[in-house]
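User: Sequence recovery, please. Input:
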């Protein structure tokens, strides 16, 4: 594993549940020897990517991460473009809406909009979304190019999160073929038992799937009529998001989606 890969692997362990790590615990969790981990952390610390708590000496993310995030968003304002689209989707669907970007063999949630009701699906932005177990992940896999797909297939751990999770390569390929045909993905209780995910791709100006947009719905209140309506809302939002990203909305647009977006 290259040094940069090892550094990114260490950074992935810093999440809200465990925002600080001691050297021994972090190296053990990452399956890395302490000398290598300390060398990498020291290098990251010199650039402000991580820092040490002055009393506990535990490592945490540094302020340089904030600077990089601000530069990225100022230069390429993905969140600013997608947030109002998510807000409208959440209002129309009455469910939680979120957008995600690919990160390694998973997706990272970059923006969320929640409905104004007490009972709603919770999306944790700190938790990566598995590609095989979520509507967002499946719709992303279904639209990547062949080389990227083969790379992902070799790295995906088909871990069963629920009884409905796709757990074999044959099941995954069958579902992806259906998603390509329909242009959107529906995942019923495959990541969380009580959540139905409905997702569509977002394409960039090169014609590549660059992100996904989804509604996370409470399964107990979902009916066939509600499901069909939310699918239309998600597709319409995906059309808008693709246009905002400079992509060709006809890649995902259907007659129903165009009508809903107008």
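Assistant: Recovered sequence (262 residues):
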């Amino acid at each position: 594993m290259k040094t940069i890969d090892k550094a990114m692997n260490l950074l992935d362990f810093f999440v809200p549940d465990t925002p600080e790590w001691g050297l021994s615990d972090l190296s053990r969790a990452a399956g890395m020897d302490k000398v290598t981990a300390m060398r990498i952390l020291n290098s990251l610390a010199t650039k402000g990517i991580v820092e040490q708590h002055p009393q506990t000496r535990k490592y945490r993310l540094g302020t340089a991460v904030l600077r990089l995030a601000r530069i990225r968003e100022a230069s390429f304002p993905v969140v600013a473009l997608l947030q109002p689209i998510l807000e409208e989707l959440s209002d129309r669907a009455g469910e939680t809406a979120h957008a995600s970007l690919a990160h390694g063999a998973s997706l990272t949630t970059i923006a969320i909009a929640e409905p104004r009701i007490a009972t709603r699906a919770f999306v944790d932005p700190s938790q990566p979304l598995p590609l095989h177990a979520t509507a967002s992940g499946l719709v992303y896999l279904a639209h990547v190019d062949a080389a990227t797909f083969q790379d992902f297939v070799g790295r995906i751990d088909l871990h069963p999160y629920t009884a409905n999770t796709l757990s074999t390569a044959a099941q995954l390929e069958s579902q992806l073929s259906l998603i390509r045909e329909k242009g959107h993905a529906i995942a019923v209780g495959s990541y969380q038992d009580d959540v139905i995910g409905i997702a569509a791709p977002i394409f960039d100006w090169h014609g590549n799937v660059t992100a996904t947009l989804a509604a996370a719905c409470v399964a107990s209140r979902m009916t066939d009529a509600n499901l069909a309506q939310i699918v239309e809302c998600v597709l319409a939002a995906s059309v808008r998001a693709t246009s905002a990203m400079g992509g060709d909305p006809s890649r995902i647009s259907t007659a129903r989606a165009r009508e809903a977006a107008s």
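Residues 255-262 have pLDDT under 50 and may be disordered.
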